[in-house]
Design goal:
single chain; 285 residues; alpha/beta; Rossmann fold; N-(1-d-carboxylethyl)-l-norvaline Dehydrogenase, domain 2; 5-stranded mixed sheet; 5 strands; globular
Length: 285
């Protein structure tokens, strides 16, 4: 985003330990494959007074650990761990266009504090205590977005895309509930909201990658330029491993995994993915 001007009060620094010594709230926004390394670097400086806000939407491929789980594994002293996620393209947030997201934390006082700091008329924050669900929302939607891009590249039509997104919500919910997430999280802002945004817009790196895959381009040619990351690529492998581990039926995510890692054609994988899987029954009682 070379055209976006940063505020003069923002400073750049590379010494993470020095940053920790001078800040109480730490926002982590690096790609998921760097999270464990960052946790190890900050370990000697972190305290119980720090608040760690995870913005990364991913699952570690080698361990299939959520980002919060990596920090729990690597840090000797636990800060307050929170997650911020939702339907937010960085460009629109930077342009101060109206946006909404979810902030999740198990500690009510920390949740209220972050809400007071970050919430505004142009950036609305909704509070939840479901750390697991909010993290899974942000990871599954990236894989579904790749499949949506493939569908649109195949000229399947808007009806098919709507059905695909709906089935994606079912896959997200099945996995999330199995891992301890709450149903309301998946049908809310960080679930359905983020999935719709990411699966329908050319601004989505994962959606655009799916379109390029359908054109027959090699994976490395489909990746975003300028150092940007399409987290759905690694997430496809992580989701497939999680689904197999917990015996959860996720045919769309499995189809994307087969396309990216097994060389299956887009047409073959997306046609084979349809199965009479069970609908999610939602009760409001």
């Amino acid at each position: 985003m070379k055209d976006i001007l940063l505020p003069n009060t923002l400073e750049a620094a590379t010494d993470l330990l020095n940053i920790i010594r001078n800040a109480g709230i730490l926002l982590i926004a690096r790609p998921s494959n760097f999270t464990r390394e960052i946790a190890r670097v900050i370990n000697t400086g972190i305290t119980t007074e720090h608040i760690l806000v995870i913005l990364t939407k991913g699952i570690e491929q080698s361990s299939i650990a959520l980002m919060s789980e990596i920090f729990l594994q690597e840090l000797d002293i636990m800060p307050k761990i929170t997650v911020l996620s939702g339907p937010t393209f960085a460009r629109e947030v930077a342009q101060d266009l109206p946006s909404s997201a979810v902030i999740a934390c198990n500690d009510k006082q920390t949740l209220n504090l972050l809400h007071d700091y970050l919430h505004s008329e142009r950036f609305r924050l909704y509070k939840r205590k479901d750390l697991i669900g909010v993290q899974l929302d942000g990871t599954v939607k990236n894989v579904i977005a790749i499949s949506s891009g493939i569908y649109d590249g195949m000229k399947m039509g808007l009806n098919a895309r709507a059905a695909l997104i709906c089935r994606g919500i079912a896959e997200m919910t099945r996995l999330g509930i199995a891992l301890g997430g709450q149903l309301e999280t998946f049908i809310g802002m960080s679930g359905i909201g983020d999935l719709i945004l990411t699966s329908t817009s050319d601004l989505s790196r994962n959606y655009a990658l799916g379109q390029n895959l359908d054109r027959g381009l090699l994976l490395e040619k489909c990746m975003p330029s300028g150092g940007a990351v399409a987290e759905g690529v690694q997430n496809a492998a992580s989701k497939n491993a999680l689904a197999e581990c917990h015996k959860i039926e996720m045919p769309i995510c499995k189809a994307v995994y087969r396309i990216i890692f097994k060389g299956t054609s887009c047409v073959g994988a997306m046609q084979d993915r349809d199965s009479p899987d069970q609908e999610i029954s939602i009760s409001y009682a």
